Structures are given as structure tokens and as C-alpha cells.
Amino acid sequence: MGGYCVDVVGTLTVGVGDCLSSPAAAAGVPWPDHLRSSIMGSQHELPLDTPLLYLKSEEAFAGLSSRERRYAHHLSRASWWGSFIVVCQTSPESPSIFNLITRLLRSQPIDTLKEVALTKAGFTEDEFKSLIIYYSGVVYNLGNYLGFGDRKFVPSVSREKLETLIRASKANLEAPDVMQEYMNQALGPMYNLVENKRFLGLPPNGITMYFTPNCTQEDADIAKEYMAAKNIEAWNSRLLKYEENGQTIYDIRLASVEKESCEGLTVDVDEFQGHKIRVSRGDHSYFLKKMIEELQLAREHTANDLEVQMLDKYIESFSKGSVQAHKDGSTFWVKNKSPAVETYMGFIEVYRDPVNQRAEFESFVAVVNREQSRKFDTLVERAEKEFLPLLPWGSDFEEDVFMRPDFSSLDILTFASSGLPIGINIPNYKDVKEEQGFKNVSLTNVMAARTGIKGGPFLSESDHALREKHGALGLEIQVGLHELLGHGCGKFLRRKDDGSLNFDYKKLKNPFTGEKVTFYEKGENYNSCFTNLASAYEECRAETVALYLGFVDDILDVFSVAPDDREDLKYVCWLDMMYAGLRGLEMYQPSQGKWGQAHSQARYVILRVALEAGQGLVTITETTGPDSLPDLLLTVDKTKIHSVGREAMGEFLRKLQIYRSMGDAEAGRSMFEKYSEVPSDGPYPFSKWHEIVVRKRRPRMILAMPNTQLSGGDVELVSYPEAVDCVAKSWVDRFSPEEFEAIETALSAFVQGWTK
């Protein structure tokens, strides 16, 4: 998988949610309906102390040549046009919410809108601030569900007050019919927190745009089997189910500018296992067309032929809906080593598809930090001969040749997706990775924003002091090992396109059973076999690789860790992982019994493995906080991580990799789901503690990103000083009034026709 995400949080928020773990709740006393409703609402609101920060890239941008700045400008514009695809991929109401509040904010200065809110709509200062924070959350997550956790968030201000403000606004004065239409489409769903609207997921238990609402798991399985049989990959598609001439049609809809039939890509109607299946195209056509216009302009400012070929293939892919063209573009991208301006765009990450096959659109533009990048060169150079052989599964389950990745440390200029990771390993196409290699990128300015936030619950003061001292370097090492070696290691046993196997079937045995190994047949891949578990399983494997190799002093030498600091740094890396596992419990959804975030589930699983190892390696103790409410204390025994910890993680990692290599989803799922359980009793009653973790959660930061604008023959970077409205202002400035009108029209058209 592609992105390394951390739980980037800010200051502690205290509110009605603090009632969640009262002694009454702990004793199992039922909550009154009105109080439970308030508690649920608080979990689905963005707190007033949400950190709204500006992602700095001025120094990196200033170091570019004029040609490079023009290249970056057009790529950024393409990315922002593509961001509306994510809005359409998030929820049915996200496009209408964007249209409604963006028009409200762009029709008059925010300060004058605030005056209207206070004087004519009965808003308090905090309520208007909460509305700006809500909108900032919508445009940062590109929808009204959190990119990290898939939880719906709603405005803190009442619907009645918001509606009053809208009717008193300049936007309503200028276009009352338009605003009324947007209110009709957005306001009801915007505030709706019924059970099956609270989280993303497959109907009827959640919301997804990758399937129409009438689709079930059985329908998803039919589509998966058909696509495997026809060797179609699902990255840029969604599944529609509808009636036509009295028959049920499964329509696999590809994202593309072109809408007409195309041999080799579309299928009018196909019979499969008694079902009628169609492959059509034309999804997100308008936004892909606008992207292509900018990519064609960027093409005039490329640095080399590889960038030209890359953009040409992106254009072909987005025009036709061809995954193969995007793979070809990815190949040129991988070959383009350490460019001054780095970019990657397309349908990349499958985290949000309930069955982990269809990908969310993503596009980033960044400037390479060459000095920071050089320190990883040695790690890559020594990986194949020195570090990968240390992993606990042996050469039979390791790649025959390690495809040395290109590692770059980047300062992000533009990131259009549902959230910003701090590290990325891409492309996600396994065949491209095996044959051409891959790239790892560390997002330096995002990491800097994250490490500037201190403190947190559940740890002792001494542990907080160690994290503050070593946390930044520990995170840098963890991300490097996770992305460079974690995602880059391990073999898939598979049948190649020519029918041969990429391993010796007569020789290789399953080390756990002694029988012949299983493998991936043509048309199968990791995501199609491990389905909804694929993302969390792979992130867990990469995290465990990083934790396991973090013991190696030769690796710490690469990062210039002083000998006197090594044991403390190793301890902090383990502490951080266990801490992330505990705090990640927030992302568990008790009502549905499932996890809402792959990275959080992965870290929780690692915590459970460490607790199972016993011998005092990791301990979680229930305590009472200064507010007299239940609290938790997490401790890690520094003396046990080299022995008990390393042995436990080594055996767990061996199973993770070998099940993955063989495509043994049954064994892998059985193991992984056992550790993913959230027990209600025993020494570690995480189900009970879930309430404590939710109550003590802290808001995630929201980042404003700069805009670029042409000025004469050059490009200027438009910055936004950190303030409550910095994110909102950056978005209001992002497009011209005429462009916003066209955006609204395209989003409204999608809302009207997304199930057809």
C-alpha cells in the first residue's frame, strides 16, 4: 500500500464526550437517550481547538527555476481539478455540501459574513468559528467523512442557525434559487447521524460511493470474480447495479473523459455465471478533462523525455480509462530519478473501498529536498545484501532481485486527496514494482508539522520527555524502514503472464504444513485475495518490518544515531508503536464490529501481539485521572524489547509474510482477525477502554496549502498565515468565479446521476 499515516493530533479537547467513561458507563448502566445522542454528536464534530496550520513550502519553491515553477504550477492546477473526483467518491452529499458552503464563503469576505452571522442569524463567536472549522474539514478531507478513520463529521452549529445565515447572506441575495437547491440537497444529509450514516462502509451498514446503495457483499463478490476472470483491474472503477429491460445489470464504470464504447476496454453486455455485466466508461469526465488541459500545459515545461512520456501516458489513461496506460506512465515515473519537481497522480489507494479494490483519486506535487534525501542512499545501497537477509522468512519468500527504490525527501506543495500521509511507497501496482521498481517519498514538511505537536494521554511524564527528545528522529527512521524496506520487501508467488511460475514449485514447501505452497493464479492479486483485509494487513507487515529492523545498529549508523542514544531511541520507537496501537482504538466502530482505518488497525494488532508475548513486555493499567474519571497508563519494559519483543515480532512477521507470499488469505485472515478483536473482558478489556480512548482523543490537524498563480512569465506562491480561516481562504482563492460556476455545475450533475 502507498501511504504512511500517523495519528496527527493537536491539543486535548474536553466536552460532553467526557461523560462517555463515567463510573456509570463503566458499570454498564444504560445512558439516557438524550445524553447518548449528545455524546454521539460530540464524537462526530470537529472541536473548536482543532489545529489549523499552514504547510510551508516557500523556501523549497523559491529554489526552483522559472521553468520548474511553471511545471509545478500546472501540475498543481491539475491536482486541484482532480480533487473534486475525491469529493464525488466520498458521500452522496459531499458535492452539495461543497457547493453550498463554498458559494456562501466566496460571495462575500469571511469577516463580513461573520457580522451577518452574529447580527442576523443568532450565531455566537464560537459557532461561527465552528462553521469555518467544519468547512475546513470538508475541503481538507474532500468530503464530510474523515480521511483518517472514515467517520462522518457534522456542523456544531444548529441546522436552523445555518439556514438562517444562508438566507441572510449575499450568496442567497445573488442566487436564491441556486442556494435553495443546494440547501435541499445538502442540509438534511449533512446533519444525519443515523447508525448507517456514521461511517463509510458497504451498504446497508455504511456509506460508500464505490457501489450504488442497492449493492451487497454478494454483488461485490460477483464483480470481483468477473474482473478476475476477464483480467480487469478495479483501480479506476465503481460498481453500479440497476434494472434495464426487466433485467439486473452490473455496470463496472471506468473513470475517463471518453464515454463511448471502446474495444478492449468496454463491454456492452456479458453473460457471467447467470448475471449480466457491462463495462462502461465516462465517470468523472469533466474533472479529468480539466486535468488533461493542465497536464498538456505542464508538458511544455518538462525537464526531460521521461516526464513527457509520463504525462502522455497519464493523459491517455485519464482520456480512455485505461489502467494499463497508467501503469506505463508509472513506469516512466519510476525511471525518472530524483527530479526537482516530483508528482504522481491517479487512482492510487484502496483504503476506502469496502473490499479494498477500487482506489481513491490522489495527486501530489512536491519539491525534492536533496540534502535530506541523501541520507537514505546508504540504506538503499546496503538493503539487499545486509538488511533484507535479516528478515525472518528466508530467501524463498524474498524477491529474487531487490528493486532498489528511488528515495526522495519532499516538501509538499499540493496534495489532493482525503488526507496527507508522511511517507509514501508507490506505485501500488505489484507488477510494475517487481519489473521496474518503485519510489519512496518522505514528506518532510508534513512530518515537521506533525512533530511540532506535543504531549498526549496514557503515558508517564518520563516517557513523554523521551518522546520529545527522540520522537522526530525515531519517526524518520520508522517511516524510512516502513516505506523503503517494509513495502519493498517480500515476494508474491505467482503465475506469470507467459504461464510460468516465478518460483520452483517442486522445491518450495509451506513451512507451516510441509505441503506444496499455494500461489496467485493469473487474474488474481493480493487485493483481490485478501479483499477488505488487504490494506490493514499490508500496513501491519510494513510496520512490523520497521520495528524488527529498528534493532539493527548498522541501520542506526545510517541515521547517525549517537551510541549513547541508541537504546533510548529503540525504546521510543517501540513505545510509539504501542502508543499508536492504543490510541488507534478510537478508529474501531463498536456498533458494526469493524475497524475504520487500516493503519490504526495495523498498530492495534501489533499491540495485541506484544501483549500476548507477556513477561511484562507491555502493560496497560486502568487508573483514575485527575478529573476522577477512568484513565489508562501504557508502559513498555525497555529491558524486554530485545528478547521477548524481538522474538514475538519475528515470529508474527514470518507468518504475515509467508501467508501473503502464498496468497493464503484463509490462514492470514484467521490470524489477523484474531489479533484485531476488541475483547470486552480479560486482562485487557479494550471494548470497555474504547470509551476512555474516545473521550481522551485529540483533534487531528487540518492543513492549508498554498496556491500558485501566473505572474508575467513566472509563477508566484500565494501563502496563507496560520489562522482559523486560512484553509477556507486558500480554497476560496483556488479557482476563479467562472471556474467555480463550472465546478458547481459538474458536481450537481454528478449528484443527479451517480446511481445511473
From TrEMBL:
InterPro entries assigned: Dipeptidyl-peptase3, Peptidase_M49
GO CC term, one of those recorded: cytoplasm
Catalytic activity of the protein: Release of an N-terminal dipeptide from a peptide comprising four or more residues, with broad specificity. Also acts on dipeptidyl 2-naphthylamides
Entry annotation: catalytic residues: 483
Amino acids binding Zn(2+): 482, 487, 539
Molecular function terms from GO: aminopeptidase activity; dipeptidyl-peptidase activity; metalloexopeptidase activity; zinc ion binding
Chain coiled-coil ranges: none
Superkingdom in the source lineage: Eukaryota
Biological processes per GO annotation: proteolysis
Family, similarity comment: Belongs to the peptidase M49 family.
Protein name (Swiss-Prot/TrEMBL): Dipeptidyl peptidase 3
